[in-house]
Amino acid sequence: MKNLFKKIKNVFSSIKKSAVSAVSRIKREFNMAAFSVQTTLASSRAEGYVDSGVKILIAVVIGALLLAGLYTLFNTNIMPTVTSKITSLFSYSGK
User: Fold this and answer.
1) pLDDT digit string, tens, across residues 47-63
2) Angle at CA of residue 27, ends 17 and 9, nearest 5°
3) What integer pLDDT is reported at residue 45 of this predicted model?
4) What are the respective helix, strand and coil percentages of the chain, to the nearest 5?
5) Strand ranges for 10-59 from DSSP E
6) Which residues contact 70 (CB under 8 A, 6 or more apart)?
7) pLDDT for the residue numbered 65
8) Which one of 42, 62, 70, 93 has the largest count of C-beta atoms within 10 Å of its C-beta?
9) Residues 83, 88, 89, 91: is their CA dihedral positive or negative?
10) Angle CA 72–77–82, to nearest 5
11) Terminal CA-to-CA distance of the chain, rounded, Å?
């Protein structure tokens, strides 16, 4: 009977060691993941409003230059629908 209790004690002791080892391993992995998330969030760089505004401005200027180049190259109306709508907007009779 004494041997049976010793065996049971040894089994529970090994289970306890395994559980403690597993818990400490999980805790270590969780801490490493939390540290990784913290460093990622701390080092993240966001694009500012000024950068976006400059990019949009550059795109508009390049588009306008391209359209002006097409007008001078073909020497004709490139977008007739837009031209007619703009003309109708500015020729308001005021009646």
Assistant:
1) 677 888 899 999 999 99
2) 15
3) 65
4) 85, 0, 15
5) none
6) 78
7) 93
8) 70
9) positive
10) 125
11) 114
